[in-house]
Design brief:
By secondary structure, the chain is of the alpha+beta class. It contains two helices and four strands. It has a two-stranded parallel sheet with strand order 1-2. The longest helix has 18 residues.
Length: 76
Amino acid sequence: MKIFLDDFTIFSDLSTHSEKIGKCFLKCRKYGISLNLEKCAFMVCSGTILRFIISKETFDFRKIEASVKMLVLKTP
C-alpha cells in the first residue's frame, strides 16, 4: 500500500525549520508516506491550506481548527 499526503504543512521560525522538516521526513519514511516533490514548496512565507490563504499576516487558527476537526477520521 502507498500513502499520498495532500496539504502537508510545517509552521516554524527560521531557526528551527530545518530540524522540524527533518523530523517530518523521518516520519514519512518510517510510515511509507510519499511526497510529490513537484507539488512541494519549502520555506515559503505564505500558502494555501485547506482552501485558506495562510501567512504571518492572515493566519486565523480558528478557521484551520474548524476545518481540521471536520476532517478528522475516527477509528474504532
